[in-house]
Structure formats: C-alpha cells, structure tokens
Design goal:
One of its GO terms (molecular function) is transferase activity. By secondary structure, the chain is α/β, with parallel strands linked by helices. It has helices at about 15-30, 45-50, 65-85, 95-100, 120-145, 165-170, 180-190, 225-230, 235-255, 275-285, 285-290, 305, 320-325, 340-350, 360-375, 375-409; strands at about 1-10, 35-40, 55-60, 105-110, 150-155, 175-180, 195-200, 220, 255-260, 295, 310-315, 330-335, 350-355.
Length: about 400
C-alpha cells in the first residue's frame, strides 16, 4: 500500500525532541507500509533534508504572517467553490498547499504545540500563545482542503481564549493520540472523546543502544536555556551558579564524570540553543572541576540516544531528554512544571522524580540526587522491568495511528 503523508507544525530538527518524534514515527510507518512519500514543513530545509532523507522539506505554511494569511484565504476560497462543485485548484497552487493537497494524511507532530506555556515572562507567554494559535490555523487549513488530520504524540492543555477554535477543529480531526493523562482529561472536559487515545510518547518505541562498557560512570546534565530563561523563579545568573555548585558537589562526593548534553541546538530565537547556557556554566567552573566535565557539542538525532547509555543519573529539563535517559534505564531528575511529564512520573514512580521550578534550589536538588544515587542499582533494575510495558504503550499509539491511516487510504 502506497501512502503519502504531510507533517505539519514540526519545523526543525535542531530541536532534537522534534527530530526524534519524526524519526520514531516514520520508522514505524516505513515498516508497515509498502511505500511512503513524505513531505515535512521546515524552516531549515538544507539541514533537515539530511536528517530526514525520506522526506521532501518544504516551506511551512506559517513561516511568516503573510504566507499564513494568504494560505488561509486561499483555503477558504477553495472550500467555498468546492462546495458548489467548482474546482479552483489554481487558487492553492503554492508549494506548501500543494503538498497538503496531495497528501493522504496530514500528521501534526508538534508535541506540545497545543499547550501554551506557563511562563514567568508575559512576553514569552504571549509569543507561545500566538504560536499555538498559528498551529491551530495550520490544522484549519488542512481541514478546509478536505484533508484527514491526525494529531500524534501530543500534549494539549489550558488553551484559554483559544478553546472555541480548538474544540471546533479537534472534533473534526480523525485521531488525537495524547501522551499524558492531563491532556486526556482536558480533552474530556472540552467534550472531545470519540477520537482520542492515550499512549506513551512515540520516542519510547526506540530501542536502547547496547553498550558493552561498564555503566554508572557519568552523571548526564541536560539544561534547557529556554526553561532557565522563562520558567524558573531563579534568574539566569542564579541558575548558572546553581549548576556550577552542583557539578562540584557531584565530582567531590561521588567521583563521577559529568556529561553535558544539549537537547536543542538552535532555532528562531537565541534561547533555543542550549549550548549557549552550557558554555556559560562551564565558563564559570574552576579548572580542577573542568577536568571531570565533558560536553557533547553537536549531538545528532540518530546518535543522541547512545549519549545516555553510560549515565548513572540524569538531570534534565526537557521531555525527550528524560525519555532518552529512561530508555537507557538511568534514574532521572526532571526540573519542570509541565503536565506532560506526569505520565512518565507515574510509570516509573520513585526512580524518576520531579522538581518544580518554583521550588528549585541547591538543597532540594542535592536531596533528590543523594536519594537516587544511593538506590541507583535498584532503580536501574526497576526501570528495566517497566520499560517493556512502556514500550508496548508507545506501540499502542503507533498501531492506533496505523489502523486509522489504513481506513483512510
């Protein structure tokens, strides 16, 4: 069976979480369909075409305000004439809209693209709200063009003023696969039930890399520049000093090496490059501590899973860093307020713990570190025992999507 898919609202593989979401989804579909033709929206097509060689990269409909409004108007005009039996295909003869039009299925892989941020910064909160709105408009354009839309591995929450538009659209998509209980309950509150499924994140379907080296030599730290700048009660300088102090504590007490792994390597804004923060943290360290510190400056999506394979403990601020750590059976500390982490916490109980950014300080962090380091072997065995169940739940989402796609095609 041949399948033509178009991926929306996932704009660059520099965000390794986005990249892994695309890779894990496509790997599954390629195994289960005879031939796939894929297009994906990309703000950095030269870079992304190397990461996704199976897909043609095209300009996103929401790449700028003019393109978005023009596409929306074209889609409305096309739909109006289509309803009265007049086909105006010339109206939608632009590359982004042609890719939409030719697709059998449109898949939204935005992750938390419909979950506006609870930021301490009003400006950032407004930007994320606008981004959520334009993500909804992308879905609307696809629906206007008569396309069957699937939202996959999504977190959907607290849409506020956007709820009326979201309800109208989400009731019309073919399938919504959410990755956390909060999203499931929120959709139920909105009256959206018939087309919703719960599954763990698609990235859990990836297999860990077999590492013959002895485990437990490193502590992996994955700070998020974006979270540090916009979500924590501490200011940026306090965050940097906290990490500097933390690394010294880990080296002196436990004799471990520290590995910094960025999860985002750039994007439209400076705060989307975690290496900026890592560079500044390391720049404030003493020379005797730096001897115990390594940095993965340019992790590739296809290799980043292996970077976590030798971690005794991971301290992370992004969803997919946590998942990569857990896939490798490492006890994990997640610094986040986000509801999208809740299901992961529930599945792994005391071996994956969360610190609310509002309560983040050195004492709280060290308390969690000591707790997990003292039971690291027990936790590794426990995580190992739970992973088959979690991977099965991830495949459940992928298989649900496959079933719907087969019905559509």
């Amino acid at each position: 069976m041949n399948l033509r898919i178009h991926i929306i609202n996932n704009f660059y593989s520099l965000n390794l979480g986005w990249a892994l979401l695309v890779i894990s989804t496509l790997r599954f579909l390629e195994k289960n369909f005879q031939k796939i033709t894929c297009t994906i929206e990309s703000l950095y097509p030269q870079h992304d075409s190397k990461v996704y060689p199976m897909c043609e990269t095209i300009e996103p409909i929401k790449s700028n305000f003019k393109t978005l409004v023009s596409s929306l108007v074209r889609a409305i005009l096309w739909r109006i004439f289509h309803e009265v039996g007049v086909e105006l295909d010339g109206v939608i003869n632009t590359k982004p809209m042609n890719s939409l039009r030719k697709a059998d299925v449109v898949i939204d892989l935005s992750g938390d693209g419909l979950c506006p941020a609870k930021s301490v910064s009003p400006n950032y909160k407004f930007k994320r709200l606008i981004s959520t709105f334009t993500n909804l408009l992308s879905i609307l354009i696809a629906i206007l063009l008569g396309k069957r839309v699937i939202l996959f591995s999504s977190s959907i929450c607290d849409l506020g003023l956007l709820e009326p538009l979201a309800i109208a659209l989400l009731k019309r998509v073919e399938l919504i696969v959410v990755r956390d209980q909060y999203s499931l309950k929120y959709l139920d509150k909105l009256g959206i039930k018939h087309n919703v499924a719960l599954a763990t994140d698609a990235v859990f379907s990836l297999e860990p890399v077999v590492n013959t080296m002895e485990k437990g030599l490193e502590v992996c730290i994955c700070p998020s520049y974006e979270a540090s700048k916009f979500f924590y009660k501490l200011d940026l300088d306090e965050i940097k000093n906290l990490y500097v102090k933390l690394v010294r504590y880990l080296v002196e007490k436990y004799g471990v090496r520290i590995k910094f792994i960025p999860s985002s390597l750039g994007g439209r804004w400076d705060h989307e490059d975690d290496r900026v923060l890592i560079r500044e943290i390391v720049g404030n360290m003493d020379r005797d501590i730096l001897e115990h510190v390594g940095i993965v400056w340019n992790p590739k999506p296809e290799d980043v899973l292996e970077e976590f394979s030798n971690c005794k403990l991971s301290i992370v601020s992004r969803m997919h860093s946590a998942i990569l750590s857990i896939i490798n059976s490492a006890p994990t500390i997640m610094i986040t307020h986000s509801s999208k982490f809740e299901t992961v916490l529930d599945l792994f109980e005391e071996c994956v713990v969360r610190i609310d950014p509002e309560k983040l300080d050195f004492r709280n962090l060290v308390e969690k570190i000591d707790y997990l380091m003292n039971k690291a072997d027990l936790c590794r065995n426990y995580i190992d025992s739970k992973l088959p169940e979690v991977r099965k739940l991830s495949y459940k989402g992928l298989e649900t999507m496959e079933k719907i796609i087969r019905e559509i095609v």
